[in-house]
Protein: Chromosome partitioning protein
Organism: Rhodoblastus acidophilus
Amino acid sequence: MQVIAFVTQKGGSGKSTTAASIAVAAFQQGRRVFMLELDRQGTLSDWIESREAEEGPDCERIDATALETALATLKGANYDLVVIDTPGIDSPGVNAAMRSANLCLIPCRPTATDLRGCLPTVQSLIRLEKPFAFVLTQCPPRSNRVEETRAGLAALGLIAEPPIVSRADHQDAMAAGMGVTEFNEAGAAANEIKQLWIWIENKLEPKGKRNVVKAA
């Protein structure tokens, strides 16, 4: 079973939105996915309650002290991917998620404030010797700021591809209890999330078992 954790001490970076859409994209590509929410704000819990689709990732909000037990239970239940959403603060829950993850993803908007804000998270991950990558989120469609931020982040670590452009589909999908690849499958936002999931999957080794359903 593989575990990815979305971690950052900077709020408003699109962490929960990206986590939800990545979980859905992974499910659509054959993964058996469970989402664990450690954030008391309950963004993912609200999202899952709004969800009408009969199939998709499972989700539960838990306290950080229950994380180790939860992961052991999910492994025993044959889930092959767990997506952890964490609060945007420095907390024992965030550190526990970092330690448990095979790959940590740091959402970061292309702003100087976000770049500075992610530094404590990066320092924690380096100290824990955990693999991590930045995910550029809420990017303007055309702006030099994206390349400037990429240059700044490249000095700190790996950058996931592609950058996620700020599009209304992301917010509309969350409000509808959907991943963006469900909400507008042919849209530009969906295409970026599909590409991002492929990038993430290529970083996860070994690859997990697939739950692809064969056509009758």
Q: What stands out?
A: The chain has a mean pLDDT of 89.
